[in-house]
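Technical note accompanying the year-one report. For the benefit of new consortium partners, we illustrate the data format agreed upon in the data management plan: each record pairs a sequence with a structure-token string. No post-processing was applied to the example shown here.
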Amino acid sequence: MKEDVTILAIESSCDETAAAVVKNGREVLSNVIYSQIALHTRYGGVVPEIASRRHIEKINRVIEQALSDADRKLSDMTAIAVTCGPGLVGALLVGVSAAKAISFASGIPLVGVHHIEGHISANYIEHKELAPPFMSLVVSGGHSHLVMVKDYGEYEIIGRARDDAAGEAFDKVARAIGLGYPGGPKIDRVSREGNPDAVFFPRAKIENAPYDFSFSGMKSAVLNYLNSCKMKGEEICTADVAASFQKAVIDVLVGHSMEALCAYNCSRFAIAGGVASNSGLRAAFEAACAERGISFYCPSPVYCTDNAAMIGAAAFYDYRRGVCHGFDLNAVPNLKLGERAF
């Protein structure tokens, strides 16, 4: 293995076409992201077929830009990394196909990366001192996982969403109160103008699974509140509803995480995923961890949302352990954390 491991990483699991060059798992030499948010906003959410087509249009240009920004040539790369799951199958296939083609043409080893593992690894980029073991909460549009990171590439899921993920609930509630898509950033912004104690929404606890999450009932409670107000002719304060809903989600995420940290006697905690860029959530976790003497880590917002730098960070530790894939690597839309695609 070369003294320095420089990885060209590709991410296309949903609606961001991204490529990055990462050195030794911690140093980002470039990080290029083409976002499709504006394209999908008109539909109120991501349209898989449209996302796949746009990935095809942008993938080569994004990869070329990442190499150019890093001032590196393809021949300088130690490995090619790509998200192989979970995600939208058509979107994943674009990235996986591009990575396999580059690997085949260049002879550079190929490493398939789990998307959630990438989100967790985003914390390594800006927190050079962070190393396993630690606990991580991954909160995004499709996932709400509480994970014990035992070692690089070794994970134990101790809590997960039973229904809607936190980000999915944010999107649905935002749509219901007229904020539109994407819901998370809009609720975060509007909540700053509202009263978080104006409306009480239930916080679900699951019997015999204290660290699992359920946000479906909370989402339904918001819809019932809105319908009740309309039937009674009562005025609805959007900012108050947004702030109250956000507080309820944060209470659940923070509460379950703190209970788990205590039970596992863990003193280091990291958050990751798109919802981890929520300002209210970050502040609540920072305060809760400080109160308990727990070291708290969170990536900058650019590394919370889907990006390729986090895939390069995760791939470094896989590559160092000798993980490489053949050209039978495929997109696995429902790939579970800890599973390998091939």
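Partners are asked to follow this layout when depositing records. The chain has a mean pLDDT of 96.
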